[in-house]
Amino acid sequence: MKLSLCFTSLFVGSAAAWSTITMKTEGSSRRDVFRSVLGGGAVAAVAAATSVEKANAYAVPDLPYPFEALEPYIDTPTMKIHHDKHHATYVANINKATEGKDGAEAPILDLMENALEAGPAYRNSGGGHYNHAFFWDEMAPPDEAKKTKASDQLQALIDKSFGSTDEMKAKFEAMAAPGATFGSGWVWVCVNQAGDELKVVNTANQDNPLMKGVLAEGVMFPILGLDVWEHAYYLKYQNRRPEYVSNWWNVVNWSKVSDNCAYVVEKHAGVNVKG
Ligand code: MN
Predict the structure, then answer these.
(1) In whole angstroms, what is the distance from residue 78 CA to residue 155 CA?
(2) Does one domain contain both 65 and 6?
């Protein structure tokens, strides 16, 4: 305990030191900061101190654009409620579930593979946190989004896997329709295990393709995902989910999707998210 108190006062008790560390690592989570500064053993010691558990808790990441930026395709009230209420609830619940447990400092990505075994809080709230953090980052205001395009690597995979971008979109929209994804869930474009083909898949509730046991084909690596829960579109579109899905292409940031593709093909792992 003496050791943890020592680290606590050194790294957390000092606001100046803390802000310096935080500023230098913009974009990284506090858990990553501790990991890089202290190393694994010391991280565990620090996590034992109550004051640090709060600092290490998962957080709702800020949107990379204002709430109104995705208008008219995704309306401002939906963005506010979706981000500040729905996403915040998933974060609060995964924090409750992981508080004081081993691995509580792990990036949310690391909880995905075994989320089904870990239990409903990990699957539903952990999945909810990962999926939403992933979702916010792959979108951009329409004026910016339309200037983005698929990288050569991504375009080659799209063409090989679907024939063309239009055919991929058609397949995605068909999968997102209520008849194919009934009730609440997500639709994804994933890179397969071998890293040489894209697949369009759907998952129920807050499951995602990174979770073992969710897809019959095994774990795959998402590069694009769409929330088709009613809370994602109902205020603007009511029962017209297909209109929401087809409009959503206007806010897809293909630069980010291309980055995701490059990452998962190289690393053979899921994309890390903020928060
Ligand atoms: Mn949602």
Answers:
(1) 31
(2) no
Domain identity same for 77 and 35: no
Domain span at residue 130? Answer: 58-275
Interval between CA 218 and ligand 1 midpoint (Å): 24
Rounded to the nearest whole angstrom, what is the distance from the C-alpha of residue 118 to the centroid of ligand 1?
22
Regarding whether 33 and 115 lie in a shared domain, the answer is no
Q: How many angstroms separate the alpha carbon of residue 229 from the centre of ligand 1? A: 6
Are the beta carbons of 82 and 75 closer than 8 angstroms? no
**Inter-residue contact 56 to 104 (CB < 8 Å):** yes
pLDDT per residue rounded down to tens, the chain (275 residues): 333 333 333 333 333 333 333 333 333 444 443 333 333 444 444 344 444 444 459 999 999 999 999 999 999 999 999 999 999 999 999 999 999 887 777 999 999 999 999 999 999 999 999 999 999 999 999 999 999 999 999 999 999 999 999 999 999 999 999 999 999 999 999 999 999 999 999 999 999 999 999 999 999 999 999 999 999 999 999 999 999 999 999 999 999 999 999 999 999 999 999 99
- Whichever domain contains 176, its CATH number is 3.55.40.20
Q: Which of 10, 26, 56 is the last residue of a domain?
A: 56
Looking at the structure of the chain, the number of domains it has is: 2
Distance 227 CA to ligand 1 centre (A): 6
Are 164 and 91 in contact by the 8 Å Cβ rule? The answer is no
H or E segment and range at residue 184: none
